[in-house]
Amino acid sequence: MPSVPARGFTLVEVMVALAVVAIALPALLFTLYQQADGIEYLRDRSQAQMIAANKLSEVRLSSRARSSLLQGSESGFSEFAGRDWFWRVASEATEVPQFFRIEVSVGLGDDPEAQPLQTLVAFMSADLAQDTDPPEQGAGDTGEPTDGGESDSGSDEDTQQDGASGA
Fold first, then answer.
1. C-alpha distances in Å from residue 130, one per residue of 51, 58, 65, 127
2. Domains plus CATH for the chain?
3. Which listed residue, of 8, 81, 99, 147, carries a Cα 20 to 30 Å from 34's Cα?
4. Taking the complete model, does pTM exceed 0.85, yes or no?
5. Binning pLDDT at 50, 70 and 90, where does residue 122 land?
6. How far apart are CA 87 and CA 52, in angstroms?
């Protein structure tokens, strides 16, 4: 009777395979955890950006309504997406007269001294008395001539037409 070679893996091969899996699996789980943590951080930054943009819009609207810019700083808490957010709005003068730098910082939690997730900077003029209504569109605003239809380009066309009719 001829002997049939044994099929299967040896104990050494099985132990090497288990060692590879034991090393690779934790590394894979660590990478997945980092990815999930990064996504959470990006979500928080995006929400902080929205809050900062909303606060800047509030500053612009309230400054227009009061006819004066925010002087100094103010801070507070807002609830957004089921979480508490700390915000701080600071205004400071620039080297340009009547021009101010507005900085909005937004962070998570109760600690105002913590590093903000998002900081938004804008510049605003202190001259809030300017007219916000758009000017009415008149004949002079459309670029069309207002002096009876004659313009430099119209006289050139007349010259070309006269030359064409004379031929």
1. 28, 19, 12, 7
2. 11-130 (3.30.1300.30)
3. 81
4. no
5. very high
6. 8
